Amino acid sequence: MRIEPVTLIVAPNGARRMPTDHPRLPITPESAALETRAAVEAGAAMVHLHARDAQGKHTLDPAINAAFMEAVRAEMGNDVVIQLTTEAVGQFTPEEQITLIRELKPEAASFAVRELIPTDSDADKNRGREFFSWVHQQGIIAQFILYSDEDVLRYHHLKAEGVLPQDQHHLLFVLGRYSKTLQSEPTDLLPMLMEHSDDTPWAVCAFGEKEHLCAAAGIALGGDVRVGFENNLYDQRGELAESNATLIAQAANNARNMARPLITADQFRSKYL
Length: 273
Prior knowledge:
Helix content is 41%, strand content 14%. It has helices spanning 29-42, 62-76, 94-104, 113-116, 122-138, 149-160, 189-195, 211-220, 244-257, 265-272, and strands spanning 8-10, 46-49, 81-85, 108-112, 141-146, 169-175, 202-206, 224-227. An 8-stranded parallel beta barrel has the order 1-2-3-4-5-6-7-8, surrounded by 7 helices. Helix 1 runs parallel beside helix 9.
């Protein structure tokens, strides 16, 4: 049996946390580039990048996102896959999310299905079909973000209807985002996997201090993982992690212990392009 390599994705900042939460949380292009370098050296192949404006707020402004991308690329060359987020954070419309990706054409982007196709109306589905067909044609590596087993089931329905592309994309199963305590458990992954009915590759990310256990479960069950300060600030000992690289190194060690090699950025690109 062939053992699939594991993709480690670092999410170094997210949309809400600030350096007051952790001094290594990056909110400038330069700090994002340096934090990405440390994470890649620890084993990450991809960075999930949130751009921040001059006040440190999450933004989908194309010019600011371009500055973050350019800083990371200048620091890392092609040694990391740069994934832009389209997260709405309750304030950006689907049109604004789409505009970001159409203007910048990043090599990878993440999309919450429930945000970009919020209803099953013909208008929402047609907009989603047109946009994601364009994303696929552009060779942008799409990651569809799913928050529940219902989201996973709906993803498969949308794909069966041709609203979402059939291949060349990736899934992210998010654990704990809508729990009352923003804490996740490894068992939260199981209902989502039960609804995942094809071989589309997937990753898991988990909110809260059990992130490392959820990541280990994802690796053991054949998935990829995303870790970082967007979701959790604590290491596996329950202490404040030194950096995002600390969390990547923990996941890398688990992967090695399970005999799953780490994928490189170029290997990831060749898998999806």
